[in-house]
């Protein structure tokens, strides 16, 4: 009799809202966070997890109609020239949590995922699980290669000054080209 008394068909939910509703709220929040920052986001992008992998600075500006502009100045995708006009589309969708996808080709961003002579290229991602999305920080994890990237709100809207400051810091830290 004790065994039957202990079994109950009523289970208390661990969550106040259904899973589908929580997933949609996470997608909506991520979209709102990304598109609400008019100055844009500075992204510390790491294409892959290899120990020798470099990180790259980019500036992304998301708008509510699904367009994103990506600015960069690096040796991998822009031949060390400032590129500010690389536009494509983006979407936040649900895929085991909110997923940021750059769903049309962007010549700055997708160059990291394009194959090269070695067949693999830089092993970069263009789809990211959004692990955290707040107005102060967006934490991303590449869907395919699992490298983490971080986005923070831009403090300086002048792209030339921003990338000059990045180069100055890189020179200070890695001046001997290591």
Describe the structure.
The chain has 178 residues and is of the alpha+beta class. 22% of the residues lie in helices and 30% in strands. It has helices spanning 2-6, 19-36, 159-174; strands spanning 41-45, 56-62, 67-72, 83-89, 91-94, 98-101, 127-134, 137-142, 148-153. It has a 9-stranded antiparallel beta sheet, with helices on both faces. The longest helix is centred in the first third of the chain and has 18 residues, at 19-36. The termini are far apart.
Helices and strands, with pairings:
Elements: H1 2-6, H2 19-36, E1 41-45, E2 56-62, E3 67-72, E4 83-89, E5 91-94, E6 98-101, E7 127-134, E8 137-142, E9 148-153, H3 159-174
Antiparallel strand pairs: 1-2, 1-9, 2-3, 3-4, 5-6, 6-7, 7-8, 8-9
Keywords:
3 helices, 178 residues, nine-stranded antiparallel β-sheet, globular, alpha+beta
| Strand segment count | 9
Biggest sheet strand order reads 4-3-2-1-9-8-7-6-5
> Tell me, what's the shape?
globular
Order of helices and strands: HHEEEEEEEEEH
| Subunit organisation of the chains | single chain
Helix content: 10-25%
Mean pLDDT metric? 85
> In terms of structural class, how would the helical and strand content be classed?
alpha+beta
Termini Cα gap: 73 Å
Describe the biggest sheet? 9 strands, antiparallel
List the total number of helices. 3
Low-confidence stretches: none
- Percent of sequence in beta strands: 25-35%
Radius of gyration: 20 Å
Summarize the structure.
The protein is an alpha+beta fold.
């Amino acid at each position: 009799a004790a065994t039957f008394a202990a079994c109950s068909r009523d289970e208390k939910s661990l969550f106040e809202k259904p899973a589908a509703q929580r997933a949609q709220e996470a997608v909506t929040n991520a979209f709102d966070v990304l598109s609400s920052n008019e100055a844009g986001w500075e992204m510390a992008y790491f294409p892959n997890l290899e120990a020798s992998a470099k990180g790259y600075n980019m500036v992304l500006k998301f708008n509510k109609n699904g367009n994103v502009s990506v600015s960069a100045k690096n040796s991998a995708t822009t031949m060390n020239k400032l590129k500010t006009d690389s536009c494509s589309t983006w979407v936040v969708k649900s895929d085991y949590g909110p997923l940021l996808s750059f769903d049309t080709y962007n010549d700055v961003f997708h160059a990291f995922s394009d194959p090269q002579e070695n067949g693999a290229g830089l092993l970069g991602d263009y789809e990211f699980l959004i692990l955290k999305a707040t107005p102060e920080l967006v934490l991303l994890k590449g869907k395919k290669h699992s490298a983490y990237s971080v986005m923070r709100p831009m403090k300086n809207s002048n792209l030339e000054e921003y990338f000059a400051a990045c180069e100055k810091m890189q020179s200070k830290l890695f001046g001997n080209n290591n």
